[in-house]
Write a structure and sequence with these properties.
alpha/beta; Rossmann fold; four-stranded parallel beta sheet; 5 helices
């Protein structure tokens, strides 16, 4: 049996939403839909927003407004220091594209479909 991988799920979160909370929530739901199949393959799914959103909520309104994008990107950047792979979901997203770039710089596998992920 292979060692389970910590796989960052990267894709649109705010991109293409014009800040509409319902569309942002739909994007997060799409990211989360990939978590169960990754788990079933024996791996640990991770989404940067799962970590970044509580940080933003606890920063306070003024700090959060100033740091929103920075916290999201920085959280993903820090997570990628611990992740073993990235699953890049379809859709335009500068943040997800940066995640892929960082993963490749680190020599991590980048998957573009759940079907590409080997079972643990």
């Amino acid at each position: 049996m292979r060692t389970p991988l910590l796989i960052l799920i990267a894709g649109p979160y705010r991109s293409g939403t014009d800040g509409d909370p319902a569309r942002i929530a739909a994007n997060l739901e799409r990211l989360e839909e990939a978590s169960a199949p990754i788990f079933r393959l024996g791996h640990v799914p991770m989404i940067g927003e799962w970590v970044a959103l509580p940080i933003l909520r606890t920063l306070g309104a003024a700090d959060a407004a100033d740091a929103d994008g920075d916290v999201m990107y920085e959280t993903a950047h820090r997570l990628l220091q611990h992740c073993d792979a990235v699953l890049r979901l379809p859709g335009a997203s500068a943040g997800a594209d940066t995640d892929v770039e960082i993963a490749r710089e680190r020599g991590l596998p980048v998957f573009f479909s759940i079907d590409e992920i080997p079972a643990a």
